[in-house]
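Q: How would the structure tokens look for this protein?
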Amino acid sequence: MFSFSRPMKVLPGSMLAAACLLLPSAAAEPVPAALTGAWRISRIVPTSNQGCWTPQHAQAFVGTTIVYTAHSIRWQGQEVHVPEVVLRPVTDADFRAETGGDSAATFAELGITAKTVMEADLQHEDMDITGGSTEVPGDAALLVAPGRIIISACGVYMEAVKSAPAARAKK
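A: Here is the predicted structure in token form.
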């Protein structure tokens, strides 16, 4: 499963409880309001990292829509229940360390100019909705700017843009 999250270290019982109290930057929440709604995958973002898919494989995702609700992700007729979301700030150094080190994509490659962006890591059971892996496209999103997120599937990064609500789009 794709995730930008940092690995969790197992600590003895009382130390784990104390450590959890000291981690205010990562908290379980519903899908944040900034992410809820429909997002159209607008393009594959070219990067130098290696993934289990090629950009050509993921090209079929371009033009499709991911819908986030408070507790689910919907894509291609499939719905994935999301019981919790871990929301935290992430820097380029954090992102690179957690997604492949020296061979990882960089914020610059992803078109991110901010020093820190929010990451929403949507927790869910493994599912095969792409036919090629148990990853769920959009289950981790970098909230890059209002109306723009970066998601990934098998190491291929995609930009998604917020779709206009149906009522507004008809005007």
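Residues 25-165 form one domain.

The chain is about 15% helix and 35% strand.

Upvote if useful.
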